[in-house]
Amino acid sequence: MRILHTADWHLGCKTDDVPRLEEQKEALKQLIKIVRDKDVDVVLIAGDIYDSLVPSSEAEDLFYRTVKELNNDGNTIVIAIAGNHDDPKRLSNASVFANNYGIFLIGSLDAINISAPDYTEYRKIRAIESGRGYIVLEKVDGEKAVIAYMPYPSYYRFGEKKIEGITFSDRVKEWLNIGASHFRDNTINIAMTHLLTYTSKISSEAYSKMSHIDNFTGLISNDALFTKAHYTALGHIHACVPVNRERNIYYSGALINQNFDQSSSSQTKVIVADINNMGLNRIEKIPLNVKTLKKFSVTSLLQAQLICRDNPDSWIKIEIENADQITMDEIKKLRTDYPNLITLSVITKEAKSIRKDFVSKKDLTNAEIFDNFVMRQTGQEPDPDVKELFLSLMSEELYETDSDNN
User: Fold this and answer.
1) Those residues with Cβ within 8 angstroms of residue 273's Cβ, 6 or more apart along the chain or in another chain
2) pTM of the prediction?
3) What is the pLDDT of residue 5?
4) How many CA atoms lie within 13 A of 14 on its CB side?
5) 106 and 122 in contact (C-beta within 8 Å)?
6) If DSSP codes are grouped into helix, strand and coil, which group holds residue 272?
7) Backbone dihedral region for residue 16 (phi beyond 0: left; psi -120 to 50: alpha; all else: beta)
8) For the domain that residue 297 is a member of, what is the CATH number?
9) Domain range spanning residue 345?
10) Is 387 within a domain?
11) How far apart are CA 176 and CA 198, in angstroms?
12) Residues of the chain under the 50 pLDDT cut
């Protein structure tokens, strides 16, 4: 069975007030073409379909038209789960219609009501069984897959309360295993969820040293995801990175680059994997042709012009620091000449001399804020890989684990 793993579409998002919906349309056209060209059996969308709990009508229209195209008249099953940016009820409401076509939109752990069509000459795969946290698919050749799903987990969303002595990671493991307990020896077993865990770039030893900040971030331990799945599809981190190669646990990354961070200067990707009931046979990370986002700090207007000229296919953010006086006309001309320049800030020598004696959080970079926090907590410098992970996630919303309403 061939699956395509994607996540974090964030339809309707903006980058520094610049709408990105048209670029998202183009990226989704590429995704549809990959599904057709690769003859994909199942598309897994691992959360954060929208950028807002109340998406625009344009964003919703794009999503529904896209999943219909991905479904390919019933030839491809589409399963989408809610992420932290999605309204679970709003997403699952459309399942009344979508399930008839092999499109499953899942906002909770509740069982899906399936309407399995009879096999026809054009429908090669269908849902044959469902229950709380899982769905079973079958191809015309008899090959079966069990998909264990867990939308973005939180006590509030799942209608549960904290249990004394049980960590949030332990609860996540229990919730995921509601569906994973239905994995079978003779089926293809796949898990999918949307959460934050540390990637393979960070060792378990480094993570354990930072465990005291779990409550601050909602970071889930890797072993909470260890099931008998042949492949685990994750959403939340916007880079295509492995969590555990041995167990085939992967983040697919975002549809487009959205924020000026360390991962935004490279192409986004989707994952296509071939799996049978013995395990993963092949995995392919396919890049999407999308705009990259690049951030620069320069000291002159000329340097800013050269950067914009040399990066015509990227969105650019520039800070001109310690520069001589720059006029509004010069700034206006730079923006007019280079529409790829999203954000420009100018700190002249005079302005810098005025503010040099003032230090506040807004004057510090995210890296400096993180360094200060860890030093206060531990008295030591943070692990570089842990620091890189958190910097890549500064734009993401935090978990709801510590809410008084939970």
Assistant:
1) 2, 3, 5, 231, 248, 280, 282, 283, 284
2) 0.83
3) 98
4) 9
5) no
6) strand
7) left
8) 3.30.160
9) 292-356
10) no
11) 17
12) 210-217, 358-359, 362-363, 395-406
